[in-house]
Every structure is written in C-alpha cells, then in structure tokens.
Amino acid sequence: MPESVSLLGPSLGLSAILFTLGVAGVLLRRNAIVLFVCIELMLNAVNLSFVALAQLHGASGQLMVFFVMTVAAAEAAVGLAIILAIFRHKQTVDLQNINLLKG
Amino acid sequence: MVHAVFYFFAACAVVTAALCILSRNAVSAVLWLVTTMLSLAAIYVLLNAQFVAAIQVLVYAGAVMVLFLFVIMLLNLGTARSDLRGPSAVAATIVIAGLLLVELAALWRYTPRRLAAEVAQSPALSDPATLFVAGELARQETQARGVVGGVAAPLFQLYLVPFEITSILLLAAIVGAVVLAKRRI
Prior knowledge:
heterodimer, A: 103 residues, Helix Hairpins, B: 185 residues, mainly alpha, Four Helix Bundle (Hemerythrin (Met), subunit A), 8 helices, 77% helix, 0% strand
C-alpha cells in the first residue's frame, strides 16, 4: 500500500474537523460576509474528502472538486451581490437587523 | 516523512480555520481562510492531486477570496464590534458542533482495506470499471497520462455533459450577480 493512500483516514478526519468548524462559524457569527466565509470553509472540507477518496476511486473524485469549486464561485458571486443589495437598502450586514422575511 | 508533512499542514489548517471563525474583523477572517486553503492545497499535493492543488490556489485562494475582499472593501464596514451571538447560541453551537464532530469522527477509522471490502460487497454502486479499480489508482493514472491528462480524460469523456451544464450555471450566476448588484433594477 503506498504511503499516500494510508492518509485516507486522517484526511477524512481533518475534513470532519474543518466541516464542524464551518458549521460552528455559521451558528456563531452574525456578520453575513463571515457567514459566507464559513460556508466556503465547509465546501473546502468536502473537497478534501473528495480528493482523499479519489485515491481509491479514480480521478472522478477530483472532477467533483472542480464542479464544487464552480458552484462555490457562482454561489459567492450571487450571494455577495445579494449582500451588496441588502447593504444598500439597510446599511448593515448584521443578520439580526435583516429580518425582512420574518413577517 | 509524508505523515509528518501531512500533520503539519493539517494542524495549520485547523488552527487557521478556528482563527477564521473567531476573528472579529471580516478582512482577517477572509485572510485566515486563505491560509486554510493554502494548507489544504499542500495536503492535496500529498494526496496525488497536484492539479486540484494548483486550481485551489489559483481559483479559490486567488479569485474567490479576492471577490470577498472587494465586497468587504465596498461595504466599508469599519466597526470592531464583536458580532458573536449570545450565550444561548454559543451553547447551541457547542451541542450541535459536538454531535456533528462525533458523527463525522467515525470517518477517521475508515481504512482503505475496510472501504475496499465494503465496495466489493455492495452489488452495484456504479459501474465498477469507472468507479473502483484498486488502490493507488490516482498515482497510476498520473504516471500513465500526466498530472493534467489524468483529470482531463474523464472530464471531457465521461463528464462532458455536466461540464457543459456548468457553463450555463456560470452564465446564470454572472447575469444574476450583475442584475442584483445594479443600483436600479
């Protein structure tokens, strides 16, 4: 067994830790931009597990990373545009003050 | 040696990710995330995914994070006030994140041998010829077709349709971002 394949378990563990940190950030912070940063952190954690498993399953796992990156870039562009529009409307990105949909 | 390098960069990634979610300033949060991404790129190299590592540095740490920094600069948020939620939210975070970590930490015990046994037992996850061959597949493909070729061949053959659909997604994102960010719609 090559040495890099034996990194599979630790890689998945690291991916789990990073994903949990991302979830904790989403739950803890109120700044909308930092929230987006935490979502990017979660996507990166998932990418790591894709790459780790690609060693066993072939390059398809690495291709999924490309698709995840594309979706992440699209999501960041649209999400940041929404944040800009909200900031222009309410002069804040604090999620406590953004309760338009609460009714 | 590989393990030592891996654990060094893993420690870097975890520490910078923790600093990212706890830093008060949005700009420093983004910059800590860039450090996390660079550590992950180093780990991708150790995992025989050199091309993904290059894309991670160029696209993710480069382009996407610059987009974040530009938006932060445009918003001119200038306060150093902490935006952490209250104690009840902190307690909920600890409970939820702890449960999630316990669940995900089971992955740590996932050895290649066990994975191989599970895939061999399951009747048809997918076509085994494309999904699962044997260990060290990524390294063999890299040796046979080069770093980029090993990724490009399935991208333009097996995954051609999803790849083309991606361009429609990007077009929709571009149009959506322009429409949303315009001052008057």
